[in-house]
């Protein structure tokens, strides 16, 4: 059925204006004034912003990790994402050495197909590069439309790959038109420091942060950037948490390297002191990289404003406090890393960023949607409000206030890392390809209605805004 959105303020990464949006067959068919409403359902967006659906480029749904599995799967996770104004997620498909990539991808299709309530794509973890992997890569890119690869530089003996793998992945990505993503921390040195901490009897959650100092994130970020320059390839650094890493990204970009950076809400508003909370509460705040000293937050905000960091991912990776996080009660190395963020990504950035004057409204849209669409081969089908684009649209009330709480969130976990935080601005209704998923704050979507997205190859020019200098 046709829909006509009226009376809202449309915000894209570059413009803010008042107009009506006509939706037909899941797409935006017209944008203008006094559009014919014949046969259309009228959606009144009075007092609201009308923004492109959020694209979360960093989620871990239904992912085995640390001897357990994330609490949110593709159903609860994408439902919570929709409540938060996200209409596309790109999830990390894990692989293991020796296993055909095809098998891992099939596993991820099986996890998501019947469950996702919004559209989704996959990034593919590269654990090793060998002849079989090289043979499979064209299939992965051309048939599966997976055009981004993830290399872990940390989690020794679990996910960690060596520099040889990283460099070969960068070379292959350049050849095939893919973007390489890195978890940038020096896993070898972290392994040494964590073993020493445990041997010294330092087992509380705070030692998770103390054994992963920012220098090791900066070092790994710089190393990955250097290898990217050598390979003349392209790199996206996930979950940047600190000044050391921002500096390395800025340095690489100033040299003309194609290096992009993402941060996450937790690094913008929480800090290392949370890990010292009593009664093992600190475990709720165990992420890798860890939360940092508070002064890093200003560096991250400035990097978002100046464009040195380009996206905001959630790094959704949720574990219950009781029964999962407490696996590490007597040993911080056994606390599953990660937290529940998928739902509050937009609200936190809007409230702390736009409302507090740290970033503009257009930057908010770019950071939460448009830039990820461009970097990950979804633009302009996703990531903007334009004629011909998918009608993935969020009607966002910029004035409403709420307090974040596990009591009211839609994620499947038993706590919220931002419990008690007051935010201004929240999605009221969310459409995925023209259909309501959330309507007047009520879920009306359907598991299985989300479509798998085959993404276009990395395009070196696409990620850049018109008014921005090319980084080459
Ligand atoms: N970030 C985190 O602590 N957990 C999720 C896995 C990862 O992204 O490293
Ligand atoms: Zn990571
Ligand atoms: Zn992650």
From the helix content, strand content and strand pairing, which structural class follows?
alpha/beta
Sequence of strands across the biggest β-sheet: 8-11-12-13-14-15-16-17
Q: What value does the average pLDDT take?
A: 97
CATH class of the largest domain: Alpha Beta
What share of the residues does DSSP label as strand, in percent? Answer: 15-25%
Using the CA coordinates, give the radius of gyration. Answer: 21 Å
User: What's the CATH architecture of the largest domain?
Assistant: Alpha-Beta Barrel
Count of distinct structural domains = 2
How many DSSP-defined strands? 21
The CATH topology of the largest domain corresponds to: TIM Barrel
Ligands bound to this protein structure: N-(aminocarbonyl)-beta-alanine, zinc ion
N-to-C terminal Cα separation, in Å? 45 Å
Fraction of helical residues:
25-40%
CATH superfamily of the largest domain: Metal-dependent hydrolases
Pfam families: Amidohydro_1 (PF01979)
Domain Amidohydrolase-related: 49-437
Cofactor: Zn(2+)
InterPro entries: Amidohydro-rel, Hydantoinase/dihydroPyrase, Metal-dep_hydrolase_composite, Metal_Hydrolase, Metallo-dep_Hydrolases_sf
């Amino acid at each position: 059925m046709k829909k006509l959105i009226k009376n809202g303020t449309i915000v894209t990464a570059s413009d803010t204006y008042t107009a009506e949006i006509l939706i037909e067959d899941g797409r935006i068919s017209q944008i203008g004034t006094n559009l014919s409403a014949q046969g259309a359902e009228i959606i009144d967006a009075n007092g609201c912003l009308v923004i492109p659906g959020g694209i979360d480029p960093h989620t871990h749904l239904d992912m085995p990790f640390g001897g357990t599995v994330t609490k949110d799967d593709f159903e609860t996770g994408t439902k919570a994402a929709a409540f938060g104004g996200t209409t596309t997620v790109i999830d990390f498909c894990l692989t293991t050495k020796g296993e055909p990539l095809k098998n891992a991808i099939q596993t991820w299709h099986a996890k998501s197909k019947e469950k996702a309530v919004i559209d989704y794509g996959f990034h593919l973890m590269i654990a090793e590069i060998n002849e079989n992997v090289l043979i499979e890569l064209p299939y992965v890119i051309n048939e599966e439309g997976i055009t981004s690869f993830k290399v872990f530089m940390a989690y020794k003996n679990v996910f960690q790959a060596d520099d040889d793998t990283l460099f070969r992945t960068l070379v292959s990505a350049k050849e095939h038109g893919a973007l390489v993503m890195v978890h940038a921390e020096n896993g070898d040195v972290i392994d040494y420091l964590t073993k020493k901490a445990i041997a010294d009897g330092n087992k509380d959650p705070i030692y998770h942060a103390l054994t992963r100092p920012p220098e090791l994130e900066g070092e790994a970020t710089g190393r990955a950037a250097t290898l990217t320059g050598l390979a003349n390839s392209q790199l996206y650094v996930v979950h940047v948490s600190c000044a050391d890493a921002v500096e390395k990204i800025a340095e690489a970009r100033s040299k003309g390297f194609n290096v992009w950076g993402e941060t996450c809400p937790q690094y913008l508003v929480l800090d290392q002191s949370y890990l010292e909370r009593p009664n093992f509460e600190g475990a709720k705040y165990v992420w890798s990289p860890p939360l940092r000293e508070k002064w890093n937050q200003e560096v991250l905000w400035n990097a978002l404003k100046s464009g040195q960091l380009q996206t905001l991912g959630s790094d959704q990776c949720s574990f219950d406090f009781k029964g999962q996080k407490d696996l590490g009660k007597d040993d911080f190395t056994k606390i599953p890393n990660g937290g529940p963020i998928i739902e509050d990504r937009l609200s936190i950035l809007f409230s702390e960023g736009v409302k507090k004057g740290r970033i503009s409204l257009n930057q908010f849209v770019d950071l939460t949607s448009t830039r990820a669409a461009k970097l990950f081969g979804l633009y302009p089908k996703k990531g903007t409000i334009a004629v011909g684009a998918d009608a993935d649209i969020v009607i966002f009330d910029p004035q409403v206030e709420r307090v974040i709480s596990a009591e009211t969130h839609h994620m499947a976990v038993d706590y919220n890392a931002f419990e008690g935080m007051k935010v201004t601005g929240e999605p009221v209704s969310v459409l995925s390809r023209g259909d309501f998923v959330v309507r007047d704050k009520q879920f009306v979507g359907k598991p299985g209605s989300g479509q798998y997205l085959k993404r276009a190859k990395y395009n070196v020019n696409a990620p850049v805004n018109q008014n921005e200098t090319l980084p080459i």
